[in-house]
Specification:
With 134 residues, this protein is mainly beta. The protein has one domain. It has a three-stranded antiparallel sheet with strand order 3-4-5, with no helix packed on it. A two-stranded antiparallel ribbon has the order 1-2. The chain is extended and about 65 Å long.
């Protein structure tokens, strides 16, 4: 893989290769590339102040994304290790729901924008806990 492409994996036909070290293999394979154009979404609180919307120029408005407001150190007894707030967060939301998606954009975007996806990364805030509570 490289920053601008990846190759489909390949291996020798014979499983009886004696020495794997310092060998060179050549094979026909497939190279995949992607022309990706991103835009920074316009982010704002909604009129009632209860949700954070991110709007793209193509008419997509998504209000379930990362809002930059997660905090490390707020205890929650129901959190598992996977649920715990980490220092960095990432979120990807595709357009279509194949039946397994927690979030998807088809109800937030025009049908003509069915190749759109949402990707966001943020850094969590740190909150110091006091000895007598938080």
């Amino acid at each position: 893989m490289a920053r601008n492409y990846t190759l489909a994996p390949f291996k020798p036909r014979s499983e009886q290769v004696e020495e794997w070290v310092n060998n060179t293999y050549t094979a026909a394979t497939t190279m995949y590339t992607l022309d990706l154009y991103c835009e920074e979404a316009k982010s704002e609180w909604t009129y009632n102040g209860n949700s954070y919307e991110q709007t793209a120029s193509n008419g997509c408005t998504f209000n379930l994304g990362l809002d930059g407001n997660t905090t490390i150190g707020i205890p929650n007894p129901s959190y598992t290790e996977l649920d715990a707030v980490k220092e960095y967060n990432g979120m990807y939301v595709g357009y279509h729901n194949g039946g397994f998606a927690d979030y998807y954009l088809s109800s937030y975007c025009p049908r003509s924008e069915n190749t759109t996806f949402y990707a966001a990364f943020d850094k969590s805030k740190v909150r110091m806990l006091l000895a007598h509570g938080y």
